[in-house]
Design goal:
Blueprint lengths: L5 H5 L3 H12 L5 H18 L6 H15 L3 E2 L12 H7 L1 E2 L1 H14 L4 E5 L4 E5 L7 E4 L4 E3 L1 H12 L15 H18 L3 H14 L4 H13 L3 H14 L4 H20 L1
Parallel strand pairs: 1-2
Antiparallel strand pairs: 3-4, 4-5, 5-6
């Protein structure tokens, strides 16, 4: 299992950190091909934009290149597909979700010299472009469209309720470790939904290298082990969660699982 500390992620471009994460979860991730494809597309972008002199017009041309000529787009048919969280698959399919498309947009945009940053808005990942002397603007990497503060406020109300207020902290630049942590959680959820338990287990094990003894990760690990018929390990993980989070509603449900697993263990041995 790859063991990366926060400093490693901060030293990388987000897409490079995501590739490292992808490989840690699935060793079959085509990292070398990705690196070559990123270099190829970057060279293509440099050539396509070489005659643009105005920086903002150059950036608009870059967005057209990314979304129209290259054809990157949000995966509207299978948003929760785990393929949308693996960079090699996003590059091949030209489909993704805000965080994976945003990581690519950040990579190419920064290499081309644009003042871009990532923002983990409560509803999704955003790209912030901060031209000198102007108010910051926000891009939805899912479709490449600019998003107004009015729209962001509406998204926030939909997420948090009618009393939600848009605050400056919602639009602060985020660091790579925070994004990678959320990316890992998204991957795990997608893999669990697809019943790809071996890969989901790698997600949980990796998460526990960053937050050891997290009862919720250990609970999830117990569920995965249960699906893999590793009942004794699942029993231990469920018992740990119940001890650490006795007031959590899930603890009552897990007590039934513990009883059933204990009975099976006695029967088998």
């Amino acid at each position: 299992m790859l063991n990366l500390c926060d400093e490693d992620f901060d030293a990388m471009e987000l897409v490079e950190g995501a590739l490292a994460l992808n490989q840690a979860v699935n060793p079959d991730t085509q990292v070398s091909w990705c690196e070559a494809e990123l270099a190829r597309l970057l060279k293509e972008a440099e050539l396509a934009l070489v005659n643009e002199r105005d920086e903002q017009q150059r950036f608009d041309a870059f967005l057209r290149l990314f979304y129209h000529q290259w054809g990157f787009e949000g995966d509207r048919n299978a948003y929760y597909d785990s393929a949308n969280g693996f960079i090699d698959k996003v590059l091949k399919r030209r489909k993704g979700i805000p965080v994976s498309l945003g990581a690519l947009l950040l990579y190419f945009g920064r290499k081309l010299g644009f003042p871009l940053e990532g923002v983990t808005f409560p509803t999704q990942f955003l790209i912030k472009i901060d031209w000198y002397g102007e108010q910051a603007r926000y891009i939805n990497p899912y479709d490449g469209e600019y998003v107004s503060e009015h729209t962001l406020h509406a998204w926030l109300i939909g997420h948090s309720g009618p009393l939600a207020k848009l605050k400056a902290e919602h639009l602060e630049t985020t660091d790579n470790p925070t994004v990678i942590g959320r990316w890992l959680a998204l991957l795990k959820s997608a893999l669990l939904r697809e019943e790809r338990y071996t890969l989901a287990l790698r997600c949980t094990d990796l998460a526990l290298t960053f937050v050891p003894d997290d009862p919720y990760e250990i609970r999830d690990r117990g569920f995965i082990y249960q699906q893999l018929d590793c009942h004794q390990v699942a029993l231990s993980d469920f018992q740990y969660f119940i001890e650490q989070c006795p007031d959590d509603p899930a603890s009552e449900l897990l007590k039934n699982q513990v009883s059933a697993l204990s009975e099976n263990s006695v029967t088998l041995h």
